[in-house]
Amino acid sequence: MSNTDFTKEYFSMKEEHAIEYAKTVLKFFDESAELNCKEIGDGNLNYVFKVFDEKSGKSVIIKQAGPVARISDEFKLSPDRNRIESEILKIQGTLAPGLVPEVYKYDSIMNCCSMEDLSDHTILRTALLEHKEFPLLADHITTFLVNTLLLTTDVVMEHKEKKELVKTFINPELCEISEDLVYTEPFYDCERNDIFEATKAFAKELLWDDKKFILETAKLKFEFMTNAQCLIHGDLHSGSIFVAENSTKVIDPEFAFYGPAGYDIGNVVAHCIFALANGNATITEEKEKKEYISWLEETIANVIDMFKEKFNKVWEEKATERVAKYEGFKEYYLNGVLRDTAAVTGLELARRIIGLAHVKDITSIQDETKRAEAEKFCLNVAKELIMNRENMLEGKNYLELIEAFKK
């Protein structure tokens, strides 16, 4: 019989606790189930347990938030992020059906949530590191983006209802991480930065020593902190997307809060560019490389162009705010989103090269010369996107920029 009490106070679970929790609290499995558990979390913040029945194959994911981040004890975090994640997934599941996992239960004492197991899917970053292609990715992810972003704005929502959501998902601790790691630390010689030695002098000359560029990053930081535009995912990189041949599922919205829509779109685009840099550096067979790079470029362009097309359609169908229907306002609003998208694409490209949290797309490049070239490519594209963000309004603008710096 169980001797662990999950109802009194929080403690950090281990695999044996997760099995017991699934049995006694979730009551997810039959009494005869032969349960096993693996801790599968590879992110920077949480512990993720997969509990499964050896006989039937039935499984559940239990995700627990601890008081500090896995990446560093310096980051003290409110476990309330688990509540935010659970509630956001339910909202996103309503707005974009089939594009997020189903949530079963949120537990405020153990700071954990249980949800659908997506083991039949693959993490997008893992798949991209294997240079796999997903022709439906751009279509699926732009549907998710338009539905979760536009439908939670003042354009569509009743304003008091929207303000209640702003209050509910204020998320100060995780916003502070983004403010520091994305908008601040990569743009000076911060001791917490972790830079590949072959790239450091280049980063200093290209970015840190350019006062005009640094000023733009300051403007962008304050826009991020003050623009409560819509309910954003807040961390929509390729490690937060599960893919299968005909399915895409977005996970891990614990950074969610009311912020600028371009933050989510820009993260998606940036991580496609990282994948492109990896493919360019590591694929040796020219035909394979050409096909893979071509698919990624098409995906990047489609994320921008499909987003615009779907955004315009949903705006026409769903906009309720009177002044949003004034002639020219939709174009003004959308151009602002696209400007922010370009800026965030640049910020994400830069911070993953210079800052504390890297991506395997780049760090797994074994040839040091090719890694340095890939990093410099990302930084060059990043700077142009930030400095020229007002003009990045179509997918082809991104492809022209990539072509200009691609070796």
UniProtKB/TrEMBL annotation:
The keyword ATP-binding applies. Keywords: ATP-binding, Kinase, Nucleotide-binding, Transferase. NCBIfam families: MTRK. GO terms for molecular function: ATP binding; S-methyl-5-thioribose kinase activity. Belongs to the methylthioribose kinase family. This is S-methyl-5-thioribose kinase. The gene is mtnK. Its EC number is 2.7.1.100. Homodimer. The keyword Kinase applies. GO terms for biological process: methionine biosynthetic process. Residues 226-271 form the Aminoglycoside phosphotransferase domain. PANTHER family: METHYLTHIORIBOSE KINASE (PTHR34273:SF2). Pfam families: APH.
